[in-house]
Amino acid sequence: MLNEKMQKQINDQINAEFWSGYLYLSMSAWFTQHNLPGFANWMYVQYQEEFSHGMKMFRYIHERGGDVTLKPIAKVDTNWKSPVAILEQTLKHEQKVTSLIHALMDTAHEIRDYASINFLNWYVDEQVEEEAHAEELLSTVKMIEKDQAAMYALDKELSTRVFVDATLNNED
Ligand code: FEO
Fold first, then answer.
1. 9 in a domain, yes or no?
2. Cα gap 125→28, rounded to integer Å
3. Among the residues of 64-171, which ranges form H helices?
4. How far is the CA of 169 from the centre of ligand 1 (A)?
5. Is 171 contained in some domain?
């Protein structure tokens, strides 16, 4: 059985993951509207990943005999002044998500919920990657944003990113 505090915090995190997905979907739309389809694809995959992060928690709550409570998803930004502004927000947001995951981990330790510690380890690792990817993309775009040919080449590269469903990991 899942401890009540843990259950509430994971439910809140499902909402945070879905909100992240909604934010990235909005960013994907912005890139499409600004003729950067590869960036739009990268953000669309980011949206899919966030929803799978949320769904992984959704399944976990049920696995532990708990109750999932879905809350409204708050509105997200729809306009940015540049790709750099979007990626700055992306990095800042991922840093915030990392702190939320760490707070979940603190609770799991506090109540000695070893199953949740194990479950949350996946997210701790994932956040290291999420921050690294956002940071790398931000610094690349900062370097080349005024160079149209370089932006075009990067856009092509970003069009190859494919979605990996997080709910398919740790299934056994
Ligand atoms: Fe679900 Fe981008 O962390």
1. yes
2. 25
3. 83-110, 114-144, 148-158
4. 15
5. no
Cα of 149 from ligand 1 centre, angstroms: 30
Q: What is the pLDDT of residues 95-147, one digit of tens each?
A: 999 999 999 999 999 999 999 999 999 999 999 999 999 999 999 999 999 99
168 part of a folded domain: no
> Which atom of ligand 1 is closest in space to residue 46's alpha carbon?
2
Boundaries of domain holding 139: 4-162
- Is 154 part of any domain? yes
Say what the pTM is: 0.95
| Number of domain units in the chain | 1
**Residue 144: CB atoms within 10 Å:** 16
- The domain spanning residue 98 has which CATH number? 1.20.1260.10
Q: What is the dihedral of CA 101, 102, 104, 107, to 10 degrees?
A: 180
Residue 3's Cβ-count burial label (10 Å; 0-12, 13-18, 19+) is middle
Question: What are the respective helix, strand and coil percentages of the chain, to the nearest 5?
Answer: 75, 0, 25
Q: How many whole angstroms separate alpha carbon 136 and alpha carbon 126?
A: 15
Q: Closest Cα to atom 1, ligand 1: which residue?
A: 50
